[in-house]
Amino acid sequence: MTALLQVDGLTKAFGALKAVNNMSFDVNQGEILGIAGPNGSGKSTLFNLISRIPFGATSGTVLFEGKPIQTLSDTSIARRGLIRTFQREAVFGSMSCVDNILVALEQTLGVRGREAERLADEASERVGFPRNFHNMPAAAMPVFYQKQLMMATAVAQRPKLLMLDEPASSLVEHEIDWVRDTITALNEGGITILLIEHVLPLLMSVSTRMLVMEQGEIIAQGDPLDVTRDPRVIEAYLGSAA
C-alpha cells in the first residue's frame, strides 16, 4: 500500500517531559488507522504536531504525499489536504452554522460565494447535518450537532487525510452509531482517516489497523483484535494487576 502520511522520529518535549517521544508510523492511502491510549498518553499532542495546530514538533519529520510538512504553517498543511477536528467542540459560537463552514472554505480553498455555499450544502448532506440548522448560531446547537458541524466543516475542505480527535466523546449510543456510519461512509468515499477514540468498540469496528500509545510512545500496533490482546496494552489500560 502507498503511504499517504509518514511520521518518523516525531518528538515533542516540554522541558524534561517528552509528551511524544520518537514516534514513527505510516498512514496508508485509503485506510482507517485508529489510535488508542489512556488519558495523557500523548494522542492529541501527536495530532497537534502533525497539523501544527497549535504547535510543531521539537524534532522528527512528517511527510505528506512524500513531501515534508513539519516546517509549514498550519494553513499551508490544511491547503494540501490534511484536515483535523478537535476533541472539544471547536466552533465559532456567535456565528451561524453555515458561516462556520464558509469561513473554513475561504481560508483553506480560497472559495467564497455560491461555490462555497454549494460545498457547504454537499458536506452537510454527506455527514447528515440538517440543512435547516445552517442559519442558527453554532453555540445554540447541542453537542451532537456541534460535532456534526465540525465534521461537515472538515469534509467541505475536501480532505485527502482526515484526522478525527475523539469524535464520539460525550455522545450517547445512537449518536455513536452516527459516528461509526459516517466514518465508514467517508472512508468508502475516498477519504483516508486517522482516528483517535476512547470508545474502543467503535475504534475496533472501523479501523483497518490500530496503534496504542502510552507515555508518548507506541507500545503496540497492527490488527485491532491482536492489539487489544497485547499484554502491554492490557497493562496500560488496566494496570499490572490485570
Contiguous uncertain segments of 5+ residues = none
CATH uppermost class of the domain at 12-19 and 32-90 and 145-198 and 206-238? Alpha Beta
Would you identify the CATH H-level superfamily of the domain at 12-19 and 32-90 and 145-198 and 206-238? P-loop containing nucleotide triphosphate hydrolases
> Under CATH, the topology of the domain at 12-19 and 32-90 and 145-198 and 206-238 is which?
Rossmann fold
Q: Tell me the Rg in angstroms.
A: 18 Å
Q: What does the overall shape look like?
A: globular
> Can you count the beta strands?
10
| Content of β-strand | 25-35%
Quaternary class: single chain
Arrangement of strands in the largest sheet:
6-7-8-3-9-10
- Terminal Cα separation, in Å? 36 Å
Overall pLDDT confidence: 95
Compute the number of helices. Answer: 9
Structural class: alpha/beta
The CATH architecture classification of the domain at 12-19 and 32-90 and 145-198 and 206-238 is 3-Layer(aba) Sandwich
The arrangement of helices and strands along the chain is EEEHEEHEHHHEHEHEEHH
Protein model, in words:
The protein has nine helices and ten strands. By secondary structure, it is α/β, with parallel strands linked by helices. The protein has a domain at 12-19 and 32-90 and 145-198 and 206-238: 3-Layer(aba) Sandwich (Rossmann fold), CATH 3.40.50. The strands form two sheets. The protein has a six-stranded mixed beta sheet with strand order 6-7-8-3-9-10, sandwiched between helices. The longest helix has 16 residues, at 173-188. It is globular and about 50 Å long. The chain starts with a strand and ends with a helix. The mean pLDDT is 95.
